[in-house]
Design a protein that fits this description.
OB fold (Dihydrolipoamide Acetyltransferase, E2P); mainly beta; 3-stranded antiparallel beta sheet; 2 helices; Rubrerythrin, domain 2; binds zinc ion
Length: 129
């Protein structure tokens, strides 16, 4: 991943920031300048909930070169306590122990390493509670 893309996604991936519309009160993620429901520009940043539950998950065994060091790993759709749904990797969990409905907490971890440029990307993942 190129540094400009990392910079653009920093509020979402590094700070776990979403937006809440002050007009229709809709919470959204990833970060956006306009409400995707009503189009208002009257949005304010807010910190995503840090706990949630696994809705669905799958095991990843084939991926990009920079992610192959992590395989196999679990990828899941998580419903956070504030209702936002995010995709994230499940860590600190054996593949056979993952379950739908499992409670998880957001943790900050390395997402990928780019060996040729030496970049290390960080972001959120989820660990069982
Ligand atoms: Zn709105």
């Amino acid at each position: 991943m190129e540094p400009p893309k990392i910079w653009r996604e920093k509020r979402g991936k590094y700070l776990a920031m979403g937006v809440e519309c002050s007009d229709c009160m809709t919470k959204q993620f990833p970060f956006t300048e306009n409400c995707t429901k009503c189009g208002s520009k009257n949005v304010k940043k807010y910190k995503l909930a840090t706990t949630g539950k696994v809705l669905y998950f799958s095991t990843v065994t084939q991926t990009t070169d920079e992610m192959m060091v992590c395989t196999p790993y679990l990828i899941a759709i998580i419903e956070l306590a504030d209702g936002i749904k995010v995709t994230g990797q499940i860590v600190d969990c054996n593949l056979s122990e993952a379950k739908e409905g499992m409670n998880v907490r957001m943790v900050f971890r390395v997402l990928a390493r780019n060996g040729s440029e030496g970049l290390i990307r960080y972001g959120y993942k989820f660990a069982p509670i």
